[in-house]
Amino acid sequence: MDRLVVIVLFDRVDLLDVTGPPEVFSLLRREMDEPTGYQVVLAAASMAPVTTSAGVRVLPDTTFAELAGRRVDTVVVPGAVETDGERRVRAVVDPGVVDAVGELAKDARRVASVCVGAHILAAAGLLDGKRATTHWSTARQLADEHPDVLVDADPIYIRDENVWTGAGLTACLDLTLALVADDFGDELALRVARQLVMYLKRPSGQSQFSVSLEPVSTTRRIEELRHYIARNITDSLTVGELAERAHVSERQLTRVFRAELGMTPAAYVESARVEVARHRLETSDDALPRIAAACGFNTVDTLARAFRRTLDTTPAEYRNRFRIG
Questions:
Q1: Burial class (CB within 10 angstroms; exposed 0-12, middle 13-18, buried 19+) of 26
Q2: Residue 45: DSSP 8-state
Q3: Does pLDDT of 184 surpass 50?
Q4: Can you tell me the distance from the alpha carbon of 293 to that of 100, in angstroms, rounded to the nearest whole number?
Q5: What is the structure's pLDDT at 212?
Q6: Per-residue pLDDT averaged across 88-112, rounded?
């Protein structure tokens, strides 16, 4: 039986959100000896061309009205954003699109949002009481506007019953691979990941964050301290030592870190060390004790605990998934 996959279109939609999932489904055909059963269609309010955020125009295959009464397997909901003069990002939600998604979702086997498409699912009431993710830049907006949604800004995708939510733009590939794995198993999904030159498909718990993606502090003293941490990652870097270097009390340092970076100084140091360890695991054959020492963790056990806390995986599992070369 054909699996009808409906990708929702609307003006100013993010282009990669729209094109990424169909590419995964298309590559799956190369890896199978029989038809995949997926029928992917782009649906909009009308058959008029839709102008995406990239300025590229996309032609719908069908309209929302024409899909009424059809058996839909998967609804994929992309998103759109706007930025203000200070480059702050906000998700944009069209009420007409919200209504259309709500109708499509009624009889669909599953619903998935890509990036800030989670805001549309939330507006349609599809995320109430559910755990969900979205792009890190709009996670606070999602939580503020929809308090009934359990927002977790860290994972690259989350499944809660039949509703899937994905994080950033490129995470649409990870999310779609997870849908394929759910339908056909991990082996086929892994083969498609290789076709996409994704070293291995990432687990849902893989963090969408890295130290390089964290927002820059507006406090020069904290920015200087961040650079100091990066340059001296093997030092002890206790809260007391960092506070002394910044010429503030430990209490004040913790307060500023929480306000500026959303974490304690100790958590930041750990995340910075994990980032260095990730790079070494991806690019070197160094043994774990050597990596632990080079990142300031000192022992493999400490390194492993940090990976569990921040990435929900082990150093060995991470290397197996992301080793380059």
A1: middle
A2: S
A3: yes
A4: 54
A5: 44
A6: 94
Cβ count near 230 (within 10 Å): 12
64: tokens are 């929302």
Entry pTM: 0.66
pLDDT tops 80 at residue 1: no
Sheet holding 38-44, edge to edge: 62-63, 38-44, 3-8, 74-77, 110-113, 163-166, 157-160
The helix/strand/coil state of 7 is strand
What is the rounded distance in angstroms from the CA atom of residue 195 to the CA atom of residue 189?
10
Helix boundaries (H) for 40-197: 95-106, 118-123, 139-145, 171-184, 186-195
Q: Is the pLDDT of residue 207 over 60?
A: no
Helix (H/G/I), strand (E/B), else coil: 321: helix
pLDDT of residue 199: 42
Res 201 pLDDT > 70: no
Of these residues, 6, 28, 115, 169, which one is catalytic?
A: 115
Beta bridge partners of 131: 150
The DSSP element (H or E) to which 293 belongs, if any, is helix 288-294
Residue 115 annotated among the catalytic residues of the structure: yes
pLDDT tier for residue 83 given thresholds of 50, 70 and 90: confident
More confident residue, 209 or 20: 20
Instruction: Collect all residues with Cβ–Cβ distance below 8 Å to 315 and sequence separation of at least 6.
Output: 277, 281, 288, 291, 300, 303, 304, 307
Q: Residue 119: its pLDDT value, please? A: 97
272: part of which helix (H) or strand (E)? helix 265-283
φ, ψ of residue 160 to 5 degrees: the values are -130, 105
Mean pLDDT, to the nearest integer, of 48-77? 95
321: left (phi over 0), alpha (psi -120 to 50) or beta: alpha
CB 20 within 8 A of CB 114: yes
Cα 295 from Cα 308, distance rounded (Å): 16
Separation of alpha carbons 181 and 201, rounded Å: 10
